[in-house]
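1st attempt posting a full record on here, be nice pls
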Amino acid sequence: MFAENHKISVRQLESMLLLYFFSTAVLFLPSELAETTGNSCWIVTIIWGVVASLVAVFLVYMGKKHPTYTAVEWFEHSFGRLLGTVFALGLGAKLVFDAALELRLFCDVISSAMLPLTPLWLLIALMLMVCGLAAVQGCECSARASEILFFVVFVPLIFILIFVAISADYNRVLPIQIPDLKSIWSSAPFFGPVFQGMVALLFIFPYLEKRAHCGRRIWLTCMVTTITTTVLVFLSLAVYGAEVLSGKLLPTLQMLERVSFSGIFLGRQDLFLLWFWMVTTFLYVSILLFFATDLCIRMFRGRARKRNRWLFLWIPIVFIVALLPQDMASAYWLRLRVAPWLNGIFLILLPFVALCIDAMKGRGKYE
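the predicted structure (as tokens):
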């Protein structure tokens, strides 16, 4: 089915990142921002999107310094074998946390909206099984699936958003407010889950076929994500207003119910959007499982052909962690509290320190 070269193109990486960024976090984002920043929520989205784009460019720069390195090799190279292994295990814990919470929140939404009589554990187990089957096929499987599903998902979504934009009342956006530093900082935790897909940049460079213009293209990908997310937040604000929007549970889904395509396109746009997030959750969790097995292979110097055996460790751990929160609210607040710290440590702090140590060792040349 695949070329068996275990390599992906930069275009496929762009598709992967775009789909990873539109995780379950975007379902809650408009109401979260409206509660903390009011009418300036869409401006705050632009600000944090630009910050995330700069972080992505920084991670790409690191990847191009040592293209054969993943985060595991970076940690060992910069901090030594013992401390590097500790940091790699911490990164493995982050992969488990991100996969488990993403899976739990999605299955909670599906359970409440479509399958209220189906046990939650069964939904998580089935979804995790499918993700595991995709992880077995390697990075190339996820890359090709992302490349194909990108057009299937985004074109209808843009079509629907155009009709939402036509029916919105833009007086609710007024007056335009400029956010202050306090409101910008208080909104930071809500963007951690949105851009958690950047963890792929810690593992993906050994699997890239060509790296020409990679930094510029990844930056453009992050800016496209920023624009699309800003449009979603802006339209939610125009439809409901800041006060009503702050009280909505799933404003992105509820916003799409305003437009009816019955007999023309589809009757339940909210169900279409749930299918859209099913695709993103499936691709995101499957690639995290693959990265978790890759982390073990590199950390314990195992053979690549025995990679899939590690799934028998990671899948049960993700399943157990996904079931730990009592309900969707508990899972939601747990992710809001923990995800920003994990992202800050493993996407910004440790890479920055590792890069500084690499420069001091005099090994800053491109491979």
